[in-house]
Amino acid sequence: MRFIVEARAFVGDYETARGSWFSASERRLCAAAFAYSCVYTARCGHALGRDERGEAGTFAHLAWTQREGLLAM
Fold first, then answer.
1. d(CA 18, CA 45)
2. Domain-wise residue ranges, the chain
3. What angle do CA 21, 35, 60 make, to 5 degrees?
4. N or C: which end of the chain has fewer CB atoms below 10 A?
5. CB within 8 Å of 30: residues ≥ 6 apart
6. Which DSSP category does 63 fall into?
7. Residue 42 CB coordination number (10 Å)
8. What are the tens digits of pLDDT across the range 19-45?
9. Which residues contact 20 (CB under 8 A, 6 or more apart)?
10. Predicted pLDDT at 4
């Protein structure tokens, strides 16, 4: 869950720095990019023969437990 909190904080900081809020479509794009990067990182670990779904703090655990929640940016 820490990764989601950090990602949301990053998006908020980015909006502050640019001086405007993201539009709905920009926010969906951020969420999709975040979900993709998390799941891809988990996939890389799996390709190396690791099953980290049960290990809190890993991207595999995040993807396994949050699933479509990763898209709620």
1. 34
2. 2-71
3. 140
4. N
5. 11, 22, 73
6. H
7. 20
8. 999 999 999 999 999 999 999 999 998
9. none
10. 87
